[in-house]
From TrEMBL:
Family that this chain belongs to: Belongs to the carotenoid/retinoid oxidoreductase family. CrtISO subfamily.
Top EC class, one word: isomerase
Subcellular location field: Membrane
GO molecular function: carotenoid isomerase activity; oxidoreductase activity
TM ranges: none
Pathway field: Carotenoid biosynthesis; lycopene biosynthesis
BP terms from Gene Ontology: carotenoid biosynthetic process
Cross-referenced InterPro entries: Amino_oxidase, CrtISO, CrtISO-like, FAD/NAD-bd_sf
Residues annotated as domain Amine oxidase: 29-507
Organism annotation: Fischerella major NIES-592
Protein name stated in the entry: prolycopene isomerase
Signal peptide (from-to): none
Topology relative to the membrane: Peripheral membrane protein
């Protein structure tokens, strides 16, 4: 395929003659799953990524012999059975695969009221650990988590594709009528309401809040039941599994599969504009002036970025305004990427920890601390005798704006030491064993991930009806689709992988592909 390009006289603009079936803006996991699915169906696909490597918030960076995951290292979707193992399936579709390492404890919680609890991969063991703290709620605990399984079982029996495709919905309904009716029932529900049906102990309800908050960034009352069903069951079914070589391998492998399937990706290709003709999205313009055209345009940038930055403001659709009245940006994170000497960690330390000292501060800036130690699963990510400790805690961009360079650096350092001091109680000697420290703020996330205010995705502004208000992939602009955590069902790698499957399915039907 000749890559012929023409320059418009007296202008920076260069138009390529290749006409793609689909252009995907961004190579986050949402974008890459869309691209690989379409390429596997024979579509001519181009991915445009502003950064140097693929993956977005599931990317990586290397310093002094350490390979750090940019985002969270707790990965769902790598199971071997059922239909909800969407990362395994996405890789499989383009004939690539990844070795994964099972994580036998999803989280070790260090919570107020002496609640020190491990979420074991074995469901019964987890229930017994929790019931040991709340024996008077044994029945309620089982009934709540069993109800989560009901949601999961409904999802895990059917192909997960576009809910905007009526023929697929009809097929699913005829093949799995009870599962579809079950999902319809759960779509408007939140986990908190279901939990309160079975559980009365206020401390246990706080624990359920934390169970939700640590991946949805909102308490149980605002966490959709469908997502809770996925997370609270899949951790015991497909399990949490870590990709050998680090989270960044997922994107690297998807890109390998994309290219083998005939797709194309360009790095340092920042899209500045989505081009429209007669109201329809027809192409994109890059920062260097280059123009690419396609039958369909997909944005893996956030909705805020897509509709405020990439499209002229007069094209701002009214349903996007409405969506923004329901959803706001989740906080970003203050992130500590640490290299430590291995002696600091006791034998049998778990990979993921949640640390909180005061329930009232769960959702505050610097309230909950998330910790991942991926080298406990894959030691090759650090030099021999060292570990990676990735600690992060919610932070808002406003606290980091308008500072002088000196104050910004000083605030970063102070905040980092506040976190290290708190972690010393869980990992005594952390400070003394520190070999490397790199601190990121919401500004870092904004800069390197291109995410508005460094956000990790949308969260409800108030209690909503489950997932009902979350938009699917099509937008009000014909030819333009969104994918990733600003679309149904929201944040999380397995969630954005679903969004990618759904987006590619809808586009394939629109383009008449198989
Ligand atoms: N443990 C986990 O489950 C885990 C780990 C890491 C990340 N995540 C999740 O991944 C989700 C994000 O995935 P995603 O696919 O929605 O998005 P993403 O932010 O990861 O990827 C978007 C990509 O688009 C690129 N981009 C943005 N604007 C662009 C432009 N104008 N031109 C070209 N490229 C542009 C960015 O550089 C980035 O690579 C988050 O919600 C986070 O929760 C989860
Ligand atoms: C037919 C008719 C009528 C009807 C029908 C209906 C239906 C079919 C429906 C359907 C639905 C669906 C398909 C749905 C789907 C869903 C899904 C897939 C979901 C998913 C989800 C997932 C998730 C949410 C995930 C998440 C995760 C996350 C976020 C993670 C994170 C993590 C972190 C942050 C880490 C932390 C921690 C530490 C470190 C400790």
């Amino acid at each position: 395929m000749a890559n012929s390009i023409k320059k418009i006289p007296n202008s920076q603009t260069v138009i390529t003659d290749i006409y793609y079936d689909a252009i995907i803006i961004g190579s986050g996991i949402g974008g890459l799953v869309t691209a690989t699915q379409l390429a596997a169906k024979g579509a001519k696909v181009l991915v445009l990524e502003r950064y140097l490597i693929p993956g977005g918030s599931a990317g990586y960076f290397e310093r002094h012999g350490y390979r750090f995951d940019v985002g969270a290292s707790m990965i769902f979707g790598f199971g071997q059975r059922g239909t909800t193992n969407l990362l395994t399936r996405a890789l499989d579709a383009v004939n690539v695969s990844l070795e994964v390492i099972p994580d036998m404890v999803q989280i070790h919680y260090h919570l107020p009221n002496g609640l020190d609890l491990k979420v074991e991969r074995n469901y019964e063991k987890f229930l017994q650990n929790l019931i040991a703290y709340f024996p008077h709620e044994a029945k309620g605990i089982r009934r709540f988590y069993d109800e989560c399984w009901r949601v999961f079982n409904c999802l895990n029996c059917m192909d997960l594709l576009s809910l905007e495709e009526p023929r697929y919905l009809m097929r699913m309904f005829f093949q799995h009528p009870l599962a579809c009716l079950g999902l319809l029932r759960y779509l408007p529900q939140n986990a908190g309401d279901v939990a309160r049906r079975y559980i009365k102990d206020p401390l246990l309800l706080k624990f359920i809040d934390m169970e939700c908050y640590c991946w949805s960034v909102v308490p149980a009352d605002m966490t959709p039941m469908i997502n809770a069903g996925m997370v609270f069951s899949d951790r015991h079914y497909g399990g949490v599994n870590y990709p050998k070589g680090g989270v960044g391998q997922i994107a690297q492998k998807l890109v390998e599969g994309l290219i083998q399937a005939g797709g194309n990706i360009k790095y340092q290709a920042r899209v500045t504009q989505i081009l429209t003709e007669k109201g329809r999205a027809v192409g994109v313009k890059l920062a260097n002036g280059q123009i690419y055209r396609a039958k369909r345009i997909v944005s893996n940038a956030t909705r805020w970025h897509t509709f405020h930055k990439l499209l002229p403001q007069k094209k701002f659709p009214s349903n996007e305004k409405k969506w923004q009245q329901s959803y706001q940006k989740s906080p970003s994170f203050l992130t500590l990427h640490m290299g430590i000497q291995a002696y600091c960690l006791p034998v049998k330390t778990e990979c993921h920890h949640i640390v909180l000292e005061d329930w009232e501060k769960m959702a505050d800036s610097e309230g909950t601390i998330f910790v991942s130690i991926p080298t406990l699963l894959d030691p090759d990510l650090a030099p021999a005798g060292y570990h990676i400790v990735h600690a992060f805690t919610p932070h808002w961009i406003n606290d980091w704006q308008g500072l002088s360079v000196k104050n910004y650096e000083a605030n970063k350092e102070k905040a980092a030491w506040r976190i290290i001091e708190r972690l010393e109680k869980i990992f005594p000697g952390l400070d003394a064993s520190l070999d490397y420290l790199e601190v990121g703020t919401p500004r870092t996330h904004r800069r390197f991930l291109g995410r508005e205010d460094g956000t990790y995705g949308p969260i409800p502004r108030r209690k909503l009806r489950g997932l009902l208000a979350m938009p699917f992939n099509r937008t009000a602009i014909p030819g333009l689709y969104c994918v990733g955590d600003s679309t149904f069902p929201g944040q999380g790698l397995n969630a954005v992988a679903f969004s990618g499957f759904a987006c590619a399915h809808r586009i394939a039907v629109d383009l008449g592909l198989n």
